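Exercise 7.
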Amino acid sequence: MHAIRCGDCGAPFSIRPDGLFQCDGDQAHELDSRDIDLDGSDTWAVDPAGTLVIVVDPAAATQWAREALAEYLEAEPESYAEWFDLGSFSNAVGALLDAARAGLPLSRLS
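Solution. The predicted structure, written as tokens, is:
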């Protein structure tokens, strides 16, 4: 999970009561959620502290974990592939936990 930072001053964005985001910098730059454009399987969320963050979409993280676990179970014991696949599974579960900590609903896991 990584904070989305202001392109002008580098400060992280936090959510305001009106639903817009405002950077924590001196100039308080604004960002509308419609202006957030992320690549690939990343999505945005607001963490418990109110900071705008980038996380892996829970559905993509779940698929990643399933594939890594399947590869791990098929790998030759004590091989580099087994070690690599276990690391990939661990990273996928970490991404899934980050998304859950950011409050993304579990219904998106299906």
